[in-house]
Design brief:
Layout lengths: L3 E6 L6 H33 L7 E7 L2 E7 L2 H16 L10 E3 H4 L5 H9 L1 H6 L1 E8 L7 H13 L4 E6 H28 L3 H37 L11 H15 L2 H15 L8 H7 L1 H16 L4 H33 L9 H16 L1
Parallel strand pairs: 1-4, 1-5, 5-6
Antiparallel strand pairs: 2-3
Length: 372
């Protein structure tokens, strides 16, 4: 092998499952979307030809059309199962998978001598990697080996690209995805039990209110961590970075001096050019919005299936399609998620006397107002 597409850099203090989840979603979102589309299409077709039974009734009133719809949840279930299955299957995709260097897999972890050889020759792997893929957590810049990988990559591979990916973005997206599926399935239960009256609306509102607060609180915490990471870079000093082994510390210091002239020069590089390079807002990428639109879109397709089975006129069907799947699922939901992320990131740290719980309560109430 002549080189690697990615050198995955991470710290060892962050729990492994968080990093696995982050990498899995980063690499598997396309597979997730493709398999969701296949699962929903197959489920929709099987319901249309009466292979899958529609087991409850729901009343519909849409632009002059009024009818009792035969309903089910097969599209929602089929989409969820196929999407998660597609995500898991993406790990075994033999086509187009990038080559990666991951220390836990590429450096021997059982033989101390081989481990040391691998660690001290890591610069060679950095020099032949197209991208340095940083799984960024709040511990990352406090670990000297992580800082070493950054410094080595920029000097040994000046044309390479450094990609910073805050790992909590994928965790947040996963939480939202699960929450939206729970909303969709509960909506089916409430429809089947109470039809579409005031009780259904009240129960859905209660569920959204219950779940929204911990979601907002969690992401607000992660946003503050991100702000702290950026603030730490503004005051970065390599002498303050932690290392468990004094021999490793001296080895890394010597390497940094040979590349940057002095430790102070490297610290200035991190505070200056590198800090500008990573000055990016904390956003949920568009690709994740595409994935997050699928749970409620599946619910809408289940309802559309009932409308078609009930013989809805084209005019009424078009009105429903534009108002719910398009306007609500594809436009409003991503906008609401983006607004919550923006509020979590931009709300000043000292607002409301610095109370994190008050801050997230205000954000949650604002989001509930949008929901109403």
């Amino acid at each position: 092998m002549d080189g690697f597409d990615r050198f995955i850099s991470h710290d060892w203090q962050t729990p492994g499952w968080r990093k696995v989840l982050s990498l899995l979603i980063q690499s598997g979102w396309r597979s997730m979307l493709i398999w969701w589309a296949i699962g929903t299409a197959v489920s929709f077709f099987l319901c249309m030809v009466d292979v899958l039974p529609l087991f409850y009734k729901s009343e519909a009133r849409i632009l002059g059309f009024q009818s009792v719809l035969p309903m089910g949840c097969w599209v929602t279930l089929g989409g969820a199962i196929s999407a998660v299955g597609g995500l898991l299957l993406s790990m075994y995709n033999p086509f187009g998978s990038p080559s990666c260097f991951l220390d836990a897999a590429c450096i021997c972890q059982t033989d101390d001598l081989l481990m040391q050889k691998g660690i001290y020759n890591i610069g060679g792997c950095l020099s032949v990697s197209t991208n340095l893929h940083v799984l960024l957590s709040r511990h990352y810049f406090s670990r000297l080996w992580c800082v070493f990988e950054l410094s080595a990559y920029r000097k040994l591979n000046p044309s390479g690209r450094i990609i910073l990916t805050p790992i909590h973005v994928e965790a947040f997206a996963a939480n939202i995805y699960i929450w939206l599926h729970a909303c969709g399935l509960l909506l089916v239960v409430f429809r089947a039990s109470y039809d579409q009256g005031g009780i259904t609306v009240l129960l859905m509102f209660a569920f959204v209110a219950t779940v929204l607060l911990p979601l907002s609180h969690s992401f607000r915490q992660r946003s503050l961590d991100w702000q702290q990471i950026m603030a730490d870079l503004d005051n970065f000093d390599v002498m303050d970075v932690q290392c468990r082994n004094d021999f490793d510390r001296q080895y890394i210091y010597a390497a940094i001096r040979s590349w940057y002239g002095s430790l102070d020069a490297f610290s200035e590089y991190v505070r200056g050019p590198f800090r500008q390079e990573v000055r990016v807002p904390l956003l949920v990428p568009f690709k994740y919005h595409c994935v997050l639109s699928t749970p409620m879109l599946s619910v809408s397709l289940d309802y559309m299936l009932g409308l078609l089975k009930a013989g809805i006129p084209l005019r009424s069907l078009l009105a429903y399609t534009l108002s719910v799947p398009v306007a609500l699922n594809l436009l409003w939901c991503p906008a609401a998620i983006s607004l919550m992320v923006f509020a979590c990131e931009q709300l000043p740290k000292r607002s409301f006397n610095g109370s994190l719980y008050t801050q997230t309560t205000v954000i949650s109430l604002a989001m509930l107002a949008l929901y109403i």
